[in-house]
Amino acid sequence: MNGSASSESIQKQVDQANRAFWNELCGTGLAQSLGITDDSVESLRRFDEWYLDFYPYLKTHIPFESFAGQKVLEVGLGYGTVAQRIAEHGAAYFGLDVAAGPVSMANRRLADVNGTGVAIGGSILEAPFPDATFDYVVAIGSLHHTGALDRALSEVYRLLKPSGGATVMVYNAISYRQLILNPIKTLRRKMSDPAQYVSHNETDERMRRAYDANAAGSGAPQTEFVTRAELAHLARDFSRCEISAENIGGESVLRYLSRSTACRLFGPHLGLDLYCRLVK
Ligand SMILES: C[S@@+](CC[C@H](N)C(=O)[O-])C[C@H]1O[C@@H](n2cnc3c(N)ncnc32)[C@H](O)[C@@H]1O
């Protein structure tokens, strides 16, 4: 087997593992903890209220207000909260997800709000759209699960119209959690040359599980972490790239601080998530 044939078959395995894992909607555990067991409009409203309250900064990173009449692609759909907001703001919405569950949830949401657009199954690594199709791309917590963050960002670039924008959230390799769980590896990573970065899965399942776990308690099959410098390097084809960190969890001593205080004090320095605003 030659190199490209073998990397193709490895990618197929990654996609297959992702399809199985993410078919259970991301956020299912949370929904259960809120007592949500169905997908009625009222249940989804309760889920969204919690979600948007827990991630209040989402609205500052995704320019919903500018979406009216724009063609917007969302990559990685989960429970569909963002899909519904994009459609409600008058965009022509397109959703793309490798797993079937999130696709049907997004289509369900579009129908509920009488939105324009459709969600379809497929991978961002082989996005079934021509070059320069979209005004905006939103990818929250998805590109780092694809197995190839570098190629996923190139696809986002390809799909955007000239001067089109994107909001991409990926996991921070230099967050407080990484420093606590694996300080030496994290500090080494901080010192490494970002230009040498090659997309790779986090081998420590405990680390992947600390970010995404399903109802059975397994971690996501594929998760990539990047530093700010690595992300800026991977996004070097874009004309603009602004990165900010957000999100502090409640583990260890952090449980003694309110979430809003912890996020305000430590989020910008050691937050779990990197929000990247890009312009083609
Ligand atoms: C952690 S969830 C995030 C969902 C949602 N954006 C949110 O913030 O709740 C990751 C999503 O990315 C999707 N995903 C994983 N690999 C993908 C790929 N290659 N192409 C498109 N979507 C993918 C998963 O199926 C899953 O729905």
- Radius of gyration using CA atoms only: 18 Å
Helix content: 40-55%
Q: The biggest beta sheet, please?
A: 8 strands, mixed
The CATH topology name reads Rossmann fold
User: Beta-strand percentage?
Assistant: 15-25%
Give the class from helix and strand content and strand pairing: alpha/beta
Q: So how many helices?
A: 12
Q: What is the CATH architecture descriptor?
A: 3-Layer(aba) Sandwich
Walk me through this protein's architecture.
With 280 residues, the protein is α/β, with parallel strands linked by helices. It has one domain (3-279): Vaccinia Virus protein VP39 (Rossmann fold, 3-Layer(aba) Sandwich). It has 12 helices and 8 strands. The protein has helices at 3-23, 28-33, 41-54, 58-61, 81-88, 100-112, 149-159, 176-181, 183-191, 205-211, 228-234, 259-270; strands at 71-75, 92-97, 116-121, 134-140, 160-172, 225-226, 240-246, 273-279. Strands 1, 2, 3, 4, 5, 6, 7 and 8 form an 8-stranded mixed sheet that branches. The termini are far apart. 41% of the residues are buried. The site of S-adenosylmethionine has 24 residues, from α1 and β2. S-adenosylmethionine binds next to α1 and β2.
List strands and helices in order, with pairings.
Elements: H1 3-23, H2 28-33, H3 41-54, H4 58-61, E1 71-75, H5 81-88, E2 92-97, H6 100-112, E3 116-121, E4 134-140, H7 149-159, E5 160-172, H8 176-181, H9 183-191, H10 205-211, E6 225-226, H11 228-234, E7 240-246, H12 259-270, E8 273-279
Parallel strand pairs: 1-2, 1-4, 2-3, 4-5, 5-6
Antiparallel strand pairs: 5-8, 7-8
The structure holds S-adenosylmethionine.
The site of S-adenosylmethionine (SAM) has 24 residues, from helix 1 and strand 2.
